[in-house]
Structure formats: structure tokens, C-alpha cells
Amino acid sequence: MYVMAITSIVAGAVNAQTRTKPCIPVDPTIEQKVDNLLKKMTLDEKIGQMCEITVDVITDFSNPNNFKLNAQKLDTVIGKYKVGSILNVPLSIAQTKEKWASAIRQIQMKSLSTMSIPCIYGVDQIHGTTYTMGGTLFPQPINQAASFDRTIPHRVSEISAYESKACCIPWVYAPVMDLGRNPVWPRMWESFGEDCYVNSEMARQAVLGFQGNDPNHIDEYHVGTCIKHFMAYGVPVSGQDRTPSAVSERDLREKYFMPFMNAARAGALSLMPNSSLNGGLPFHANKELLTGWLKEGLKWDGMIVTDWADINNLCVRDHIAASKKEAIKIAINAGIDMSMVPYEVSFCDYLKELVNSGEVPMSRIDDAVRRILRLKYRLNLFDKPDWSIKKYKNFASKESADEALKFAEESEILLKNKDQILPLKKGTKILLTGPNANTMRCLNGGWSYSWQGEKTDACAQQYNTIYEAMCNKFGQENVTLQQGVTYKENGSYFQENVSDIDKVVSTAQSADVIVACIGENSYAETPGNTSDLRLSNNQRELVKSLAKTGKPVVFILNEGRPRVIEDIEPLSKAVVDILLPGNYGGDALANLLAGDANFCAKLPFTYPHYTNSLTTYDFKPCESMGQMDGNYNYEAVIDVQWPFGFGMSYTTYKYSNFKVDKSTFGVNDELTFTIDVTNTGKVAGKEPVLLFSSDLVASLSPDKQRIRNFEKVELQPGETKSVTMKIKASDLAFVGLDNHWRLEAGEFRMTCGNQSLNINCTATKVWDTQNIE
Known about the structure:
By secondary structure, this protein is of the alpha/beta class. Helices cover 29% and strands 18% of the residues. An 8-stranded parallel β-sheet has the order 9-6-5-4-3-2-1-10. Strands 11-18-17-16-12-13 form a 6-stranded mixed β-sheet, with helices on both faces.
């Protein structure tokens, strides 16, 4: 047995649910088809639909260089157990689109001949067609967030959907909407940063890009999404992957639920829960969240699929179930619809026993299967279970490549530029050093051709590393590569080789500038766990040795999370954080360093100064007194390396004439803010314009500031544009002690650039539902 850690939805919320519009409009035709089919299905067929198996189980491993399915294994999995979904990349490496299409076609033929129900194949695609040879790989989500441009995740997802369909893949496990608020967490780079509003906006655009505008009828160029990982996955107390969080219900509601709520309202068709637990209760067992908040509270009729083996984990890891069979009972009754098993068809046997014994009601089975069938109808898999891929002639097109380059340029962040050392002048003699200088693996990160990204260099040879891109841009005769530190490819993901540092230092004597490419090797999930956020000793010592030459040093940070560089940052003249910019990240960097493109990205997270001083931009006032305006905490000051929203450019911008159409407003009003932005420099540029609010007095200590809107504006030298941003009064609400949203009368300070103004709310409103419209 297990105990609910989250309090029940208060009285009144149930009545309010009847007034809540469905996230996805009901399609009567689809519902009738689902009902008709459900009545014809046997219990075995229903349970099989709820089972998802990894492709390894049906793969012929006789030739690891030539992927093909094993017909006998396929007959067991689908023919006998009626399994309704297959996932993952075969042979642990990207396949050609022709291999994908052939295998999925074979799976569909077997599924349709067995029970006249198509299978649904799912793949992780978080920054392009990551498991397809030749597909377009874009910057990772953390880079997309750094652009502060909503059109980028939309377009990335749109192209990713098109190229996934070119493989006959109909369903992707994306976007990732975990708030990256603990930089120790190894999956931070899969997120859109630390803020819930930015995550909501970017995730909503990603959903629309993947699925199109009609979630009931996904067309031939779009795919279904699976939003993940519901929720608070990005704030484990330890920082380690798949370990517990300790988030209050009101913070869950106000911040962590928001991206999922908005993505569901944008039409997301499926969802994957957090693999870990909060308050002692695993998310895969939390009926209050899965059924109460999601399905009933939002009137969301999508499908919930587990993460990898997470029902089994309720037994073997979390110990809230005495057996795997009991774990299945808990998870299915909590609201799980499909189990990513991923190796054991015994799930089907156990679930059938539970239904026959009455421990899992038939109504729960029918609800789960109805959601699965609805998903398959919405994806049009019954009419087109597979298709000809010949018509996808824009697969890996030049247009897509050009966009990937442009998006990379708009995602790399200039954090320091002392004495305007950048851009580098033509003819500059450059020493390129550091472990990240000549590898495609580090530019892409994990989920790139293979899970850990370790096979990227072999799969992406046609693209340019930083070294190759710098040679193309500045001339090979002007660029010398002496890395000094490299990664051990056969060791752990963080082991390094150190070569002749003295030789590197000697070579630096003839250089005009040293460009040190430092950071992290690729990793994904638990293998990326670290107990120390500092950059490695080897890399820091390399930089220190080179700084002693007196030559100016430019840091290129290539990392999936902020690595602490407090001791070496003062040794640099310039710092560029390129994060994980994808296959065209090296070319983008070369363009930016040469001044052929201009920096326009900003940090979507707070960059920590010290390993034991981790914070987010929306901290509480008591955490940073600033002045002696409180007792005891006279020295409490938030000390960060670079703040959220920071980023430099080769030009300068002036903000002026900040106005709002209503300085006094009611709870149902919409506010329109305008501000003039002028390019006061000598080169063209793009500027993300960020609008922040501060609640000056509230019944609960308010966050110091919150971002409420953002727009990106392009300006020529001397040009001024007026930027308009709107927010609803309800956007200024927060979740109170009763776990309901409330907007309180009082003053708010609004800030944009260096401009600020105060607005006043004239009334208080408390929502009678725990979800805010």
C-alpha cells in the first residue's frame, strides 16, 4: 500500500472542472471509432495495447552492422502478446531513413494482420532527427531557449517532424519541459532553462511545430508529441539523475505544472512522467497528479506512457510495492496508460491476472486503451500505418541546414568581451586549444546518433568541428591546433588525457590570441552525474599555464550545464558559452568570432559563481538583502557569475519611453506595455527584450522578480523600434497557501532593460479552480 503525499483537490474544484474546456476539442467521429473498436477487442488485445517494448527485443543481432528484425521474435511480441507500441533506436546507433521505413512497415504488417490495429513507434527526437543518418541536427533545447525567439523551437520541431515522417516514425518523445533549476542535474541541457514562463512558451511552440494546429488530425508532415517529464524532474535534491525532489504542492502548481498545462492546452497528445519521486511518492504512482491534475483537472484526453522500466522501479528501486505485479497494479490504477516495460512481456501476464482478480478494474483498462486508440486515430495510423518516404524530398535540405546554422548563431552567448578583443581581426594568428576544439561529439551532446552521443564523430564527419570551421573562416595558415587536454574515448565520460602542456605553451608564443575550447564531453542521463560542478582540474591548469604567457585568452565554453570557472574567469579576455549548438555550431562560432554574425543570445539560466552557491533568478527577497534592510542577514548577497537573461553583443542598445496602457488595473484586464529600443552601435543586431515583474507586497513572500513576456527585435545601426508586449492581469497571480491561484490588490514594479514603472491592482481575486486560465 502507499500513501498520497499530495493533498486532495479542495471542494469546489470538481464543480469548476465541468466548466473547464477540454484541452483538445472532442472529435465525435474519432470517439465513435474508438468506442466501436473497443467493444470488439479481447482482454488480451486491450492489455497488449498498454505494453511498449524496445526494438532490441525483436531485433536480429546476427549482423550488428545491418539492422533487421527477427520474424520469430516479432511473432511472439505482437502475434502472441498483441503489443501495441515499439520504441528506441536499433543497434544503439542512428539508421538510414530507408532502414527505419522498412522496419516500421514490417512491424505494421504484423500488427494489422494480427488484430487490425496499427502499432505506434516512438523515438527520442529532442534536437532534430537525432537517430537518423543524414538528418538535420539543430541546437539542443537549452540553446533554443537562449535565443529567446519563439519561432526557433517551432521551426526546429516542424523540420524534425517532417524528417521523422520521412522515416515512417509517427511519434516523438519531445519536447522536454523540465525546469533546469539545479545545474548539477545532468539533463539540464534538454530543458528550456530555469524559468517556467520561458519553458511554457518554448514548449508550446515546440508542440505546435511537431503536431501542427489540429491535434485531432495530424497530417503527413507532422508527428505526435510526448511531453516530458511530468514534473519537477530537473530539481533533484542531490542533483543526480532520477533521484528525489522535495517541492511543495504550491510550487509544483505555480511553476513546475505550468509548462505541462500550457503544452496540454496546445494539444500535446501524450505525456511521460518523472522517473523519480517527490515527497516520498514516485510520480508513476501518484494518482492525484496523473489522474487528478492532468486528466480530470485539465480535461486532457491524451495518453500517459511511462519512462524506461519505471513501473518495475516502484518495486525494485523505490520499494513501495512488494512485487512487480503489485507495482503494475499501483501504476495502472494511478493513471498510467502504457508501460514502457521495455524488455518483459510478462507485464501483459501480470496485468491480465490483476484484471481477472478485480484488483485493476476493467473501467481503468478501457480508459487506458481508449486513450491509446484515440492517439493512433489522431495520428491517422489506421488509414496510413506506413507510407512511401519518396515524397519527403526536403529531407536534410540545404534550407534546413541554413536554418540550423542561423539558429546556432542566435543561441551562442557572449558573456565577456574585455577591451573589445572580439571580433577577431582578419589575419590574426590563433592558437586553438582545449579538449572541445576538434570534436563533433561535444558540439551535439547526448541524444545525437546514439544515446550518449559517443558515436557522433563517426556519424557526422561531413560537418565542421570548431577547428575545421576556424580554419575555413580564418585560413588554415592562421590557426594552430594544440589541444593539451583531450577526452578518453574508452574511459568514463569525464576522464581526460593530458599531453605536452609545455609544447602548447611554447606554441602560444607565436600566436596573437589563444582560443581555449573547454567544457564537457557528451553525456545523457545518469552517466552525466557529477559531484563537482567545477571545470576539470586538467582544463583549468591548461588555461592557467597559457595565461602566464601574457597572450590574450578567449574561453569557448562548450557544455550542457554551467561549469564553475570562478578561479580562471579573470584570466580571460572574452568568454563565449556556445552550450550544445549542434552540427553547425562550429561554423556558427567562427562566423561570430569573425564578426560576420552578431551575438544576440542571453542566458536562460543563472550561471553560478561557486559550487555551493546555486540559485535561480526568482529567489526570495530575504536571500539577497543588498542593504541593511533586514535583521541578521547583513551579508546575505546573491553572488552569481552571470545572471539569468545576461548576454552581450557587438553593438549597444538603449531602452527608453517605457509605458503601460493601464497604470491601475482590475483582475480581468489585459495590460499592454511598450518600450522603445534603439541600436546605438555601429553594426546590426538582434536584441531579446525581456519584461519582468516584482510583486512589492504579498500575503506570501514574493519572488524577487519573474519574467512575464519577451520579444526579439532586429535593429540596424541607429534604428529605433517600439516593442509591444501584453500580459493578462492573471499572469501576475501566484499560488497561495490554500493551493489556489490568487491575484492580490497592490503594487507591482515592471522592469524592461534599465527602465521601470509601477502598476497597481485594485482588487483581489481567488480562482475557484486550482488551474488558472
